[in-house]
Design brief:
alpha+beta, disordered N terminus, signal, globular, 23 strands, Lipocalin, Beta-lactamase, 7-stranded antiparallel beta sheet, 9-stranded antiparallel beta sheet, 441 residues, hydrolase
Length: 441
Amino acid sequence: MLNRFFFFCLIAVVFTPCAQAQSPKYVHLSQFLDSLAAKDKFMGTVLIAEHGQPVFQKAVGWADLDTQKPLELESKLRIGSVTKMFTSVLVFQAIEQGRLSLDQSLADFYPQIKNSEKISISQLLQHRSGIFNITNRLDYNFYRTNPHTEEQLLAMMLEGGSVFEPGTKADYSNSNYILLTFILEKIYKRPYEDLLRSQILNPLGMKETYVFGPIEVGKGEAKSYLYNGNWQEDLEAHPSIPLGAGALTSNVSDLSKFASGLFEGKLISTGSLAQMMEMKDGFGRGMFMIPFYERKSFGHTGGIDGFRAFLGHFPEENVTLTVLSNGMNYDNNEILIAALSAQFEKEWEFPDLRERAISEELMQKYTGTYTSTQIPLQLTVENKEGKVAIQLTGQPQTVLDATAEHTFELKAVRAVFVFDPDQEQVTLKQGAANILFRKKQ
């Protein structure tokens, strides 16, 4: 689960050897992961499976920096919005049991929500409801660590209102899956985690997946970290907020089991799976289609606290890629491309991870406080041990990578900052956004 309003919410190397000898085609991938860890770009676990059996697996980095406990393949990390795939499966199981229907109205459960009579279960699943995403609130980073009740979460949704007419387009909203969690609990009269365990986890033998609580390193769980010149432990979101939108902890082995079980028909019917995979405006019902050259995978990405996750399954090839991270200071997409290039033997160029030096004269020109007429946030730029560090109002400070003249990136979220020191301004480019900040005099 990501706070989609903005990108911030977002040593020695230790790595565990793989469980078995691996094909030479994965050598460069393994070296790449080692290099990322050595440069403080990535900490996490990676597993590639063919027909449900691991063909590549590796862990790099630390589960707990304080105690120098390394990550292991069995380490459990929070998976964020990959949780939505599980919630969607539970919804389709309820539909197959006659407890719900895709065209059933939200008004049957929450008539107080604006446009509820126009919003269907299908639209909640496919992010077509128009319901305000409560993790887009500017205060998300402040409230995410505290327990919340159903009434409190609903109040946030009601305050946010409707951002578009239901069914007219798609826009990602964690609120949809929070509501689906409550609906499942109402129709079954059982807690979400009980449903998860009895209907998905136990049937597939997934013993390392559950709704998270406070992180316990002694039980094989990993802490999460943000990078600000060095790794700094992030705060922990409370599970009562993301619920079925992002409150699960798991490991790469369990998630690979889940993908195999789902696509082998062990959880829902072929027809229900086809409805999950049906794409409209880029959204399926609890999953996305993620292409790689001519191939297509189906799965989900996730992010919560400093954790990042990816689960993708290629049905035709029966290949599953799972990547979990508890420290990301790089573009996750580049890691996925490296892994899939190795798996499908595509050409891939090892990236240049060397850092560019910044002169003291330039650094003095960059530093300062900037404001924008486009967004009500202030940008502060500082010199942090020879690196450019930026901070937006209400967000943590983060160090940028120098990638070209006057150009710096936060690769983890594909944000680019282009400075114009002569004009005393900086432009933030992220996706379709171009936001100009001018230095305060």
